[in-house]
Amino acid sequence: MNRLRHNVLFIIFLLHVSICVLGQTNQFSLVNWNMLNYSSTNNNSTARVPEFKLLIGELLPDVLICQEIINESGAIHFLDNVLNADSVTYSMASFITSGTGLDNAVYYKTAKFTSGPTKAYSTNLRPIYRFSVVPTGFADTVYIFSVHLKAGSSTSDRAQRDQEVDTLRKYSNLLPPNSYFFTMGDFNLKSETDGNSYNRLLEQLPGETGNFYEFITWTGSWANASNAILHTQSPRTTTSQQNIPYGTLGGAPGGMDDRFDLLLGSAAIFNNGGVDIVPGTYEAFGNAGLHYNVALTDAPSHPSLSAQIITALHNVSDHLPVRAQFTYDVQPDALVRNPSGYSISDIQTRNGADFPLRGTRVSVSQSPVTISQVRFEATGNYNQSDITEFQLRVSTQANFDPATATVIDAISNPGTAGMKTFQNLQYAIPAGQTHYFFVTAEVNGQTTRVVGVSPLQVTY
């Protein structure tokens, strides 16, 4: 028998559970913000904390996506000293340090979301990040691609941005059709015709489903004064210490004239059903369309926000936050999962099949509960010809035993790594029982090997 040596499979377990609940609609706010070199050690960064707290209190994000976080200590500093300074409300998604000095971070309200793995895809400059969050009671994962593309207007700058967007599209195209995903961040696009980047973001080619959609419309070019309400950069005309208390942080002056910061969504979000934008909520926060090539603090004043809020926006960053409100259905077929838990097993042959594994547990206190679908993601490197079948097994025992774990479904010739789904299961769990689910692999039709499971507990 061929052995799979030093190859690793990661298995992320997702279960759809049919339960008797009344459908309801929940809402969440999504905010993206370039934080301008936020650090835990830079005195000017920490001095900005009071104004950041003021603005977060006005924005009230349920999910906050940030660019220009200097490092993980800076990300934690913002979590502890801004978001959770008065109450422990937010958690931070798994953080990946890129080594560029300008990283991305995602924060979410713990009561409303759980988070899954973070991935970083390399480019010639800064990585494309992919975060994943799951709204409470929702039936799927919401993926968030966060970007900080190459700045500049030269031919080489545009070419590099185009390459970065190609990388983004490469990975958004890998998500299953009808997935819920966003991209947002600092795209550094002077206009929608600045290179091919914007066109590529929206472009749908045959066989691709990773394209994005705008939630707003405009006439002409977004770079014109007539579309000033779309602009996100820059709320200041100077970076001098005389005019900005934190001027030594740098950033761009020039006044409000660029729409660098975008928030786009997938077809599943753009179309009705599942996750939907609340009409009229997309905005560059603090921009009322009254300023072009001038500072946000110049006359006229904002029609609804206080001068204190506008001044804080002017001071803390050279970008305005972009935000929007979204709704989602709490569905009877609710996805119930623990996205942060997974185990890793080396599936080379071992005597006694001594694999690390943790059971996926579903505890039921009310009937009926029916497992209708199990989705799992197999990622990593493995020889697809060596895996002849994935099997879904269930047992009433936490420790895997082939003699007691019943096969309830199988996927033959699974092919390459990626999302796999056991469908139409209709597996009923009686009240008062706990059942454990395992994914196993048939290696060349020989001994069944457990390749990985993820812990999950559901209680009704």
Provide structural commentary.
With 460 residues, the protein is of the alpha+beta class. The protein folds into two domains: 8-20 and 332-452, Immunoglobulin-like; 24-330, Deoxyribonuclease I, Chain A, CATH 3.60.10.10. The protein is built from seven helices and 24 strands. The strands form four sheets. Strands 2, 3, 4, 5, 12, 13 and 14 form a seven-stranded mixed β-sheet that branches. Strands 1, 15, 16, 18, 21 and 22 form a six-stranded antiparallel β-sheet that branches. Strands 6, 7, 8, 9, 10 and 11 form a six-stranded mixed β-sheet that branches. Residues 1-23, 331-361 and 450-460 have low confidence and may be disordered.
Main attributes of the structure:
460 residues, alpha+beta, Immunoglobulin-like, Deoxyribonuclease I, Chain A, 2 domains, seven-stranded mixed β-sheet, six-stranded antiparallel β-sheet, 7 helices, 24 strands, disordered N terminus
CATH homology superfamily of the largest domain: Endonuclease/exonuclease/phosphatase
Radius of gyration: 24 Å
Unreliable parts? 1-23, 331-361, 450-460
Provide the number of structural domains: 2
Helix fraction by DSSP (H/I, runs of at least 4): 10-25%
State the total count of DSSP E strands. 24
Span of the ends, CA to CA: 45 Å
CATH topology of the largest domain: Deoxyribonuclease I, Chain A
Q: Please work out how many helical segments DSSP would assign.
A: 7
Report the CATH C-level class of the largest domain. Alpha Beta
Broad shape = elongated
User: CATH architecture of the largest domain, please?
Assistant: 4-Layer Sandwich
Q: Quote the beta fraction.
A: 25-35%
**Mean pLDDT over all positions:** 81
